[in-house]
Amino acid sequence: MRTEAPVAVQLSDYTAYPFEIEQVDLRFDLHPDATLVRADLKIRRTGAADAALELDGEALELKSIAIDGAPLPESAYELTESGLTLQDVPNAFTLVTEVEIAPSKNTALSGLYMSGGRFCTQCEAIGFRRITFYPDRPDVMSRFTVRMTADKETYPILLSNGTPGETGDVDDGRHFAVWDDPHKKPAYLFALCAGDYDVYRDQFTTMSGKVIDLAVHVDKGDADRAAWAMDSLKRSMKWDEETYGREYDLGVFNIVAVRDFNFGAMENKGLNIFNSAYVLADEASATDADFEAIESIVAHEYFHNWTGNRITCRDWFQLCLKEGLTVFRDQNFSADMRSRPVQRIKDVIRLRARQFAEDAGPLAHSVRPETYGAIDNLYTATVYEKGAEVIGMLRRILGEETYRKGMDLYFDRHDGQAVTIEDFYACFEEVSGDDFTQFRLWYSQAGTPEVSVEESWNPETREVAVTLKQRVPATPGQTNKKPMLIPMEMALIDDEGNMAEWITLFEDEELTLTFDLPEGSERPLVSINRDFTAPIRLKRNLDRETQLAMIRLETDPFNQWDAVQALAKQEILALSEGSQAEPDDALVDAIAAAVTGASDDPAFAALLARLPDVNELFLERQPADPVALDAARKKLQAALYGKLRQFADSVLGESSTQAYDPGAEQAGERALRTALIGLLAASGADEAGDRLLSLYKAATNMTEKLAALRGLAGLDGEARETALADFEAEWTSNPLVMDKWFGVQAGTGDAATIEKLAAHSAFDLRNPNRVRSVAAAFAMQNLAGFHAPDGSGYRVVEDIILKADKVNPALGARLLTAFEQWRSLEPKAKAEAEACLRRLQAADLSKNSADIVSRALG
Ligand code: 0A1
Ligand code: ZN
Question: Which residues are in the Peptidase M1 alanyl aminopeptidase C-terminal domain (predicted)?
Fold first, then answer.
């Protein structure tokens, strides 16, 4: 059967809900196979006198329905696949519904489901309608109380939003708990968890002296591994007080870790639910990247309490209002916890690899889209990461102080409301007196702006002229674009490193800046888009000499790193196209010198040693040949390793005697070691396998162990098999670490490897982390394997997607986005990718997946 793509929802169709839900009282009688949910809704008409009451509902079995105590006959309502409609309801009344749901059969992981034998929920964006009949839209905000009953022995801990109330025992070994949330909230922030957990507890005293009870709930035996998440939570709470003046507003804050989760985590009011991958960590089982991710995701969810929960979105088109802003906040938190330039570079690597690719393909959409097919597919790099960049530009334009004033006004004016991007900008217009109309094109125009740069220097007059031209490429549904307002920090730097710095607001199609330098001046270096001020693609034709000068003279760490990247990119492209057989010795020398020169800042040195990967190179040349790009990248890595061999020997030869600490300093040292391990693995050196195996054996932490294992996974031979078998035997009972075992093989192998991994007894279609550790690690991080010209990579992923989509549509759809670049591929892979997409289009896909396939084929 062929599935039709879902009907699109339009921003312009927004209308307010004609009723207010003054109070929601929920009662859950929890049983895995048949949970009874009773909802008492106190409703008051606020719109037209003849408006019908429309409630969303999906996969619910209606048991009873009554208004003000009187049961309704079937003729009084219309029940469909998607909800319940009641005509002629009174102006103020209480509606009581009882429904039955089956959490144990809920494999979509949306609504109430079971994970590891415990109950949990996921309601964003539209999961609450799978729990009860309700206006499941973010602009309907209400007060919730919850009473739940469950078997006491199996589910001793019962949690929901807000503040705990009465608890007690009932018949048949069951018990109950009541929770009351004093803050009005939309249904997507509702949460409930029930189960047997180990609990890691702590307290936080807020700036006004309130003591908050904090708890992280994890699987039995995992409590020690929750310490870092707790520490991150306390630092987040403090940071939000110091940086934004925001205090926590309930007496308790609970986190629950679950094994089966579609995303990273969820900001439910007072009860954040996390993918356990972003809670559990210790030295032996987690990498520094895991520690960093936990820190930033804990912060992200906590920060949502103000940007998302207290002030939420009027409709899902405004998703970036909470997500872009909250990502911006968590990125700044991480920058304050660690190194600001290193954080900035990592954020940009991610943006370029994921968001720029999205912006350049058939799935491109604006930061605030005006239409969508399936809401789950709106949780994109564009909404999150580009959304954060836009806030970063806003802050740079306004300056710290005015930005903070605008935020204060926003919190003040809109607390308790569901608002729009326009409401948000009105606050900044008011405090600054500026007009942000043109700037707001960043929300409505998709595509990454390209800015080309031309420079001239007149030695007689000592005049420097810089001409900027901007162009926003056409994207689906948007052919003619207006010029954007692009803020760019710039500088002129002389040979001694002296400089003049300013910010340019580039608002027309073209702009020429001229500078007259004092007598005796030499041609300066022009530094543009410092710290990656704006999320643009800079097109600049610099000769090699100027590029090398830039590495030496740039005072902006981002641009210095980017100068190395630009050189490496050109080299990899030349190698991949055959216009050059071997890497240029002088260039490799320059990169190596940059790495060794930065060795007093090992985290930065590690970033310099990390060559741009195929994801980033994909956009540089069309058509793209991922196989050739990957081979060329490895060649350059091998050459770089050749230059760095001695340095690598000495860095890798030192073994740390310090006790393990996940903080920035030690993590930086390990980052450099792992970067060098990566180069060693790509070096093709005879001794690589043995060296990697001994590094693997000697490693005292997961960061270095995994780097060595990844290196080995990409080689052939006995050392590879030994290490993989050893790792599997050691970690077989730790699912998060086993995800890494699957991931390193999928990230380095071919279609046959994936087939083997998918047939492994521990591969589980119901666990998104496991599916992603195979299918996403292959299709999104191993582009040479996935885009194999014979189509084998597509076929093996297609097979997994078809199965995963049946179990969990959000997961199936997410994996499908790996095909988004198919049109940019070299002809063979392109034809195979298209054939695969056409087969998928003809298959019986979920709505979410059909939406991606139809847009991808566009
Ligand atoms: N609001 C969460 C992301 C999230 C979105 C959807 C989910 O399930 C369909 C789960 C989480 C965040 O930004 O962290
Ligand atoms: Zn978020």
Answer: 547-857
